[in-house]
Amino acid sequence: MASMSDFSPLQKAIVVLVVLGGTETIRTFAGAAAERSLMLALLIPMVAITVLYTRHLVRTSLAVPELIVLHVFAVVSVSWSVAPHLTLIRALPLLVTSCFMLTIASMFSMRQVLLLLGAIATCTALASLLAVALIPSARGTPPWDTVWRGVFNHKNALGSSSSFGLLLAAGAALVSQGQGRLRKFLILGALLNAYLLLVSESRTSQITTIFGFGLLGVTLVTRRKLASAAIILLVVTLTTMVVYSAFSNGWLDPVFAMVGRKPTLSGRIPLWEVTWPFVKLRPWLGWGYLAFWDPESTRVMAISQSPAIWYVPFYSHNGLIETLLNVGVVGLMLLALLLTRVFGGILGILGTTADRRELVVFFAFILCFLLHNATESSILERDGIMWMQFTLITAKLGLVAKASSRQGPALAPAPSLRRAGA
């Protein structure tokens, strides 16, 4: 692709692998029958690159050990899973794709990683628009016949991808000065993702986007380290408190009525209420990775027959609940340790780095990712582009924080785009 001429062949291959592996592009264009074999074929070059650059995987694993242990723990959960066969066939691809992203995190500089993510976001948007133009089902499926889903299985998935794609493509364009064609390509990607976000009609993703860009703007204009940390944490805390109070006291009922939504968050709150007792049945280790929502199980049938539900759900629409169902409190603690390490490291260097734009974009991504998982679930998502992005970003931030603690607060200038490095 001419507009990606600044990328090396390896970087172009990475973009293609992530777009195809993290979306339903293959299913959309080739059909479900071809998807399994083609998706399996995608894992082969991921494994090959990971093995070829094993030292980078080891380096990243030492910087963020909680991240690699979390993925291994998902695979090990097959030993106590209520559906071992489902856990095994779903956890192994998760481990492969995650190790692939951990390897990439060490191979390229922070600026290069952001440019890669911006290109991935742009290509994903282009794939969705092509699908909408050629595939009737990509323009809507019941009961959302007129709402686009692109190369995803649902309009909300398109909305989520477009929301984070807008943030990443815009952030990448911000740091791509001196690379005119690439910058135009990334600006195009930001505009396309913004358009797809609107037509997806995903309210959660639209709210997340507003929060993310607000946070991005506030952080970019803040110069002092303590002020940056305080403002970011204050915004997150106040937002959480206000949203919780609004739902608890019914303040948002008129607003939901205006947009045609119910104050149950489109049925999410009743789903959480009937699912939570199952979390308490197996709190420490969970039910096994992606094993709980077996549609033929008695537990899912019991949830579907609840008077407040009356449909067969396939996930809980909440990252916390889904994580507890998959890997229990132990897995949740690993995730919390990872976030503590990353936040602690980044807050230590956020206000002392000469050029903080990449740090700010990545920090905004993580906070938006956590906000997004309040009503959706992308944590440990198999073949999910958002979890792949999250894995790459947190791994890179962990490496940067570790390097900064050894070398001091000043970060060295990033190498050229064709060179690999920390």
Give a brief rundown of this model.
It comes from Rubellimicrobium mesophilum DSM 19309. This protein is mainly alpha-helical and 422 residues long.
Report on the architecture of this protein.
This protein is mainly α and 422 residues long. The chain has a domain at 9-117 and 224-248 and 263-403. The protein is built from 17 helices and no strands. The chain has helices at residues 9-22, 25-30, 32-52, 54-63, 65-76, 84-107, 110-134, 155-174, 180-200, 203-221, 225-249, 253-258, 268-281, 298-304, 319-349, 357-372, 385-407. α3 (32-52) packs across α6 (84-107). The protein is globular. The two termini are 26 Å apart. The relative contact order is 0.14. This is Exopolysaccharide production protein ExoQ. It holds the Pfam family Wzy_C. Its main location: membrane. It is a multi-pass membrane protein. The chain crosses the membrane at residues 38-55, 62-82, 88-108, 115-137, 157-175, 182-199, 205-222, 229-247, 324-347, 359-379.
Q: What descriptive keywords fit this protein?
A:
422 residues, mainly alpha
List the helices and strands and how they pair.
Blueprint: H1 9-22, H2 25-30, H3 32-52, H4 54-63, H5 65-76, H6 84-107, H7 110-134, H8 155-174, H9 180-200, H10 203-221, H11 225-249, H12 253-258, H13 268-281, H14 298-304, H15 319-349, H16 357-372, H17 385-407
Helix pairs in contact: 1-7, 3-4, 3-6, 4-5, 4-6, 4-17, 5-6, 5-15, 6-17, 7-8, 7-9, 8-9, 8-10, 8-16, 10-16, 13-15, 15-17, 16-17
